[in-house]
DNA sequence: GCTTGACTTGAAGCGGGCTCCAGGTGTTTC
DNA sequence: GAAACACCTGGAGCCCGCTTCAAGTCAAGC
């Protein structure tokens, strides 16, 4: 697969794919005779994984580190695992923060609904507590 | 409350508080005779809200817009609500993405656990499928 | 054989969100 | 009254993660 196809398939821009390779997220992707990238199965799998991790908020740095460890062989397994656990916990924390935000927003939205319905009924009720 | 106290209370740096004010997230905080910020109840409530929204990933721009609408009076209520709904939905999407990442990570971590336990048992089993 | 289009590279630029700095003022403390 | 400290301002700098740009190469179609 050439870069454009991969880009389309995973909804990641060609520029980003090249960028990922540059910074070490994708090791050297093989080129054909005229220097054009030819992505293989493994590359695609990696891209898919990276995309998933990135959209979950895992920093590029952490992914690079993970990959480097991975390429250093079996004896890095414990460190790799620790890295994954750390990132998992960070994601969990962010999810928690977002859930709190979500709750706040939902409460606010509900109160807007109430206020607007009241307004429609011509009650012109004071809208209060909506800008905490 | 002076800036240092607020900073401590909400774990937001003084620089960030001044920055928020500069960009319009906190309207003009009152100053005492010698120009020092004196944060009131309402300011604190706002800061707490902003902190919550920020850590949920709501962009500063959106918060500014919301506040501006708020200050323009009751007739902006529908637009404000729409803005909140939009942000809520974005948060929800991000949570979904993060949950997927979380699941992937947990699966991977589990497999590391298995592999490492096997290794301990001296089974030296090939660790496979851990760098998708 | 010339245009078109997809690709290549290295380097610079950008947007968001702070964070830091220099230089200055005001209040306490010894 | 000098030093220490908390604050002020405007502006520059920084980190992350892309994104854009300029200049060039190659393969295919007309």
Distance between the termini of chain A: 53 Å
Shape by Cα distribution of chain A: elongated
**Helix-strand category of chain A:** mainly alpha
Of all chain pairs, the largest interface belongs to:
A-B, 45 and 45 residues
Q: Could you say how many structural domains of chain A there are in total? A: 2
Oligomeric description of these chains = homodimer
Mean pLDDT of chain A: 91
Our count of helices of chain A gives 5
Which runs of chain A of at least 5 residues are low in confidence (pLDDT < 50)? none
Order of helices and strands of chain A: HHHHH
Major sheet characteristics of chain A: none
List the helices and strands and how they pair.
2 copies of one chain form a homodimer.
Chain A: H1 3-10, H2 14-23, H3 41-55, H4 60-71, H5 77-120
Helix pairs in contact in A: 4-5
The first copy, chain A, binds a DNA duplex (30 and 30 nucleotides) through residues 2-4, 13-16, 18-19, 22-23, 31, 33-37, 54, 59-61.
Question: Brief overview, please?
Answer:
With 132 residues, chain A is an all-alpha fold. In chain A, 67% of the residues lie in helices and 0% in strands. The first copy, chain A, has 2 domains: 1-55, Orthogonal Bundle (Multidrug-efflux Transporter Regulator, Chain: A, Domain 2); 74-132.
């Amino acid at each position: 697969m050439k870069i454009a196809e991969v880009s389309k398939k995973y909804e990641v821009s060609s520029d980003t794919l090249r960028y990922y390779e540059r910074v070490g997220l994708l090791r050297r992707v093989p080129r054909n005779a005229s220097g054009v990238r030819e992505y293989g199965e493994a590359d695609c799998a990696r891209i898919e994984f990276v995309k998933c991790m990135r959209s979950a908020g895992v920093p590029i740095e952490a992914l690079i580190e993970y990959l480097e460890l991975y390429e250093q062989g079996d004896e890095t397994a414990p460190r790799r695992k620790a890295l994954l656990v750390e990132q998992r916990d960070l994601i969990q924390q962010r999810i928690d923060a977002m859930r709190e935000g979500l709750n706040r927003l939902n409460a606010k939205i509900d109160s807007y609904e109430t206020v607007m319905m009241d307004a429609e009924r011509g009650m012109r009720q004071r809208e209060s507590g909506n800008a905490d």
